[in-house]
Amino acid sequence: MPPKVKITKEQIILGAVELARANESLTAAALSKQLQCSTQPIFSHFANMGEVKQAVLKQAEQEFTEFLRKPLPAVAPYKATGLRYIQFARTEPQLFALLFMSPRSATENMLNQNSSTEFLIELIRESEQLSQEQATEVYKIMWLFCHGIATMIATQTVEIADVEISQLLDTVFQNIRGGGKE
Question: How far apart are CA 66 and CA 84, in angstroms?
Answer without folding.
Answer: 10
